[in-house]
Amino acid sequence: MSDHGKGAGPAQLTDGPISFGNAWPSNDNSRIWAVGVKPEGQPVKYNPSSKNFSAVISGVSATDLDFSLDGKWITYVALPEGTLWRCREDGSNRLQLTFAPERGALPHWSPDSSNIGYVSIGQDKRSKIVIISADGVTKKDLLPENRSQIDVNWSSDGKRIMFGYLHDTPGLDIRVVDLSTHEVTSIPGSEGLFSPRWSPNGKYIAALSPDFTKVMLFDYETQKWSTWLEEAAGAVSYPVWSADSKYLYFDDLVTDEESIRRVKVGESRTERVFKLEGIERYPGPFGLWSARTSDGSWMFVRDHSTQEVYQLDVELP
Fold it and tell me: Which region holds residue 285: left if phi is over 0, alpha if psi is between -120 and 50, else beta?
């Protein structure tokens, strides 16, 4: 760092994947000590019967995994770089799809495994949905606009994508884009809702209220929303439909200890599927991530981040 005179603005001292905090200078202003954290996470599968965890992909620090519908491919976001990758389910044939400074999040395979829709976060911190081919050759924005998009949902035929916006986005609603005609439609009555989840059979949409306390259910047949579930704020995290569209599962981080719970369509009573124990989870950009593999197993990310004290040699005025 060069010497800055009186009145000079702040100067960036570090760059890269390590996050610094709790900094303090030496008495002679020649050094700064700071605590540096290097984010690392191990994606694991959980066996509720044995309460054991096993690696999903060996030797990879990653989060936000998604299996292709046929179970042959995985896409993931590498940690700490935030780059998007894809590989075979055994970890072979790895291919990096995106590069810094772009950061990827929450990718999802198209039904035919030809494309991946993901959330792209730019240097301005605004998020948008991008569609990239599985070979990384083609890449395009889903819907160019200035609002922060999130939550890619492919239709079962792969011809449409439903998405929402970050919960604090003005004009919040849920939209569907026809990938062939580029026509954009808003789901009726979805104003103020976020975190949409399309049921596999295409009959329902589950979404959250802006105060995080209600799960709302949209019925395509009646074209109406109803309150499906009321919970403590934050109790419904990373909801996911069962393959038969009969249940909505969710990661409960607030009530009933840390557990996976579910609620059945047509009912409002929830049941605990299993209590999660024996893991320190990685805190990602959108909270504690969880998802299911192609065979229905639950995935989490074990926090393997490291923390050390660093010395920076500087010239301070």
Answer: alpha
Domain ranges across the chain: 36-306
In whole angstroms, what is the distance from residue 88 CA to residue 57 CA?
Answer: 10
Q: If one looks up domain 36-306 in CATH, what number appears? A: 2.120.10.30
Contact 162, 174 (CB under 8 A): yes
Per the document, the length of the chain is 317
Distance CA 137, CA 177 (A): 22
DSSP letters spanning 145-156: -SS-EEEEEE-T
pLDDT tens-digit profile, the chain (317 residues): 444 445 556 777 777 667 777 887 887 778 888 887 788 999 999 998 888 999 999 999 999 999 999 999 999 999 999 999 999 999 999 999 999 999 999 999 999 999 999 999 988 889 999 999 999 999 999 999 999 999 999 999 999 999 999 998 988 999 999 999 999 999 999 999 999 999 999 999 999 998 999 999 999 999 999 999 999 988 999 999 999 999 999 999 887 688 999 999 999 999 999 999 999 999 988 999 999 998 899 999 999 887 788 788 887 66
| Entry pTM | 0.88
* 206-241 CB burial, b ≥16 within 10 A, e <16: bbbbeebbbbbbbeeeeeebeebbebeeebbbbbbb
Q: What letter would DSSP give residue 26?
A: -
Q: Are 300 and 276 in contact (CB under 8 A)?
A: yes
